[in-house]
Design a protein that fits this description.
It is globular and about 90 Å long. The protein is of the alpha/beta class and 471 residues long. Helix 7 packs parallel to helix 15 (333-348) and helix 18 runs parallel beside helix 20 (455-466). The chain is 43% helix and 17% strand. The relative contact order is 0.13. Strand 9 (223-229), helix 11 and strand 10 (259-265) form a beta-alpha-beta unit. It contains 20 helices and 17 strands. A 7-stranded mixed beta sheet has the order 4-12-11-10-9-5-8, sandwiched between helices. The chain has helices at 2-6, 11-15, 18-27, 31-50, 64-79, 106-117, 136-146, 157-169, 190-197, 212-218, 245-253, 283-288, 314-322, 325-328, 333-348, 350-353, 357-363, 366-383, 422-431, 455-466; strands spanning 87-89, 124-125, 130-131, 150-154, 173-177, 183-184, 188-189, 200-204, 223-229, 259-265, 293-297, 308-312, 387-396, 408-417, 436-438, 440-442, 445-449.
């Protein structure tokens, strides 16, 4: 055993091997970093030999050096690769939280790249030659699209809710229906956020029914706010009743120094109801009813980057902008660029709006998906004979805790490999394909839903499937 270990060449000798220089060039690492990886690989080989787990060529044989450098290349590539990687979402879930939610539009992407590559007027007024506010870049677009008097952006909607409650209702009472005390992703609860903000929660009504008189009976001199939370991530059906926004707005107007605030969650700027999809209220409509403040997400139905958007009456938005927490939860230039690019598509009208991937995929017709699916299967079977493929009707999900009751009619491609199980095929596409391909498994079949797959990605999936290795 000791003699075998002595046959492993020393590090300084391996550093002068031609293959070492080749790997330096391939990985773009300097010699110091690659040498560290080399030492790690050698130590792993030593341990494997001592434990009897080494299956490669033994040191001193012709193939050992080649095997060692292959392991070095693999180790260095893995160590210095991005962990945040591109994947192809073939699940049909449009706002897939685990896969990054909304894809950005080309307008947004170009604006992010330009902003990242260059200096920008992030906090500088070109017309005045003096310091400006980062809020100004999206405020005009948001007010135009939503009809609000003013607007601002923070890093996510939970932060937006927290800032509103902390800045406008700290040590005061906030009245909320029990049926709206939702829990969002990651176990964040409205009640917990309110407690952290310093506002005092006043629960009214029951889980399934809340009446206007419940709000009337809850008002005290300490009431600062009536809050309505849109239940985007669940739906209560049956024996239920809630007070409409318009009624709550009118009731709040009869009170002194009480704010009416609505957290819309998913933030629909586009009316999906006109296309028979869901019942999400449009932000502009809620603002038009007289709501003082609304908050909503940027990376859900809006189709932009992760952000929390606050819009409403200028007097309240100005207070939020000046609050110390506004700096804590502010967004960076890339988020602002992505959001501005997305909002610009909305401002340009219906045709540009459909360039936003979230909108496009939600509105994609089942006939289009069916045609693409049949064309895909034809191409696949022309390239390889190792799959059985069928196409059948199914449903796509909106995802991201949005429109849980909505099922979008779709067509899925069901694949069976001749020698791999669906789980084995899924694992290979997830781990070995570049980029990784994520689909669904059902009844030992691997399913692909092209609703969330672009034409360019179709070709990448076809290539991966045709080159599947079964060993």
């Amino acid at each position: 055993m000791k003699e075998t270990l002595r046959m492993i060449p020393p590090v300084h000798e391996l550093q002068h091997h031609p293959q070492f220089a080749v790997i330096v060039k391939q990985t773009r690492l300097d010699t110091v970093q690659l040498t560290k990886q080399l030492k790690i690989v050698i130590e792993e080989i030593r341990k494997a030999i001592l434990q009897g787990n080494w299956n490669g060529p033994l040191p001193g044989t012709a193939g050992f050096i080649e095997e060692l450098f292959q392991l070095l290349l693999k180790s260095a590539t893995k160590e210095f690769s991005f962990t945040l990687q591109r994947v192809i979402n073939a699940t049909g879930t449009i706002l897939h939280t685990n896969l990054g939610r909304a894809r950005l539009s080309n307008t947004a992407i170009r604006h992010v790249v330009e902003t990242a590559e260059n200096y920008s007027n992030l906090e500088y007024r070109l017309d005045q030659g003096e310091r400006g506010s980062r809020h100004s870049h999206i405020e005009a677009l948001l007010t135009k699209i939503t009809g609000a008097e003013a607007a601002m952006v923070v890093n996510n909607n939970a932060a937006a809710v927290y800032l509103v409650l902390r800045a406008l209702a700290e040590n005061k009472e906030v009245v909320v229906s029990r049926g709206q005390l939702v829990e969002i992703g990651g176990s964040f609860r409205i009640s917990s956020i309110m407690k952290e903000s310093g506002a005092r929660l006043v629960e009214i009504g029951t889980t399934n029914k809340t009446h206007l008189y419940d709000y009337e009976n809850a008002i005290t001199p300490d009431t600062a706010m009536i809050m309505k939370v849109h239940t985007s991530n669940f739906k209560v059906i049956g024996f239920t009743e809630t007070v409409p926004t318009a009624e709550l707005v009118q009731f709040t107007k009869t009170l002194d120094d009480v704010i009416y605030y609505e957290d819309l969650g998913s933030g629909a700027l586009f009316d999906f109801r006109q296309h028979g999809i869901g019942e999400e209220p449009v932000v502009k409509e809620v603002i038009a009813m007289g709501t003082d403040i609304v908050t909503f997400s940027g990376d859900k139905l809006l189709g932009g980057p992760q952000a929390g958007i606050i819009a409403g009456k200028k007097t309240f938005i100005d207070r939020l902008k000046k609050h110390q927490l506004a700096r804590v939860v502010r967004v960076d230039k890339m988020t602002l660029a992505a959001l501005e690019g997305t909002l610009l598509d909305y401002a340009r009208g219906e045709k540009a709006i459909r360039n936003i991937p979230t909108i496009r995929d939600l509105l994609r017709s089942v006939n289009e998906i069916d045609e693409r699916s049949h064309a895909f299967v034809t191409k696949l079977l022309q390239r390889t004979a190792i799959f059985d493929a069928n196409i059948f009707p199914d449903v796509s999900q909106v995802g991201g805790g949005t429109m849980p009751e909505v099922q979008l009619p779709t067509m899925v491609i069901a694949l069976r490999h001749q020698s791999l199980t669906a789980e084995q095929l899924s694992r290979k596409l997830r781990i070995e394909a570049q980029p990784a391909i994520i689909g669904r498994i059902q009844k030992d079949e691997f399913l692909l839903d092209l609703r969330t797959v672009s034409k360019e990605e179709e070709e990448l999936i076809l290539e991966a499937l045709a080159n599947i290795e079964t060993h």
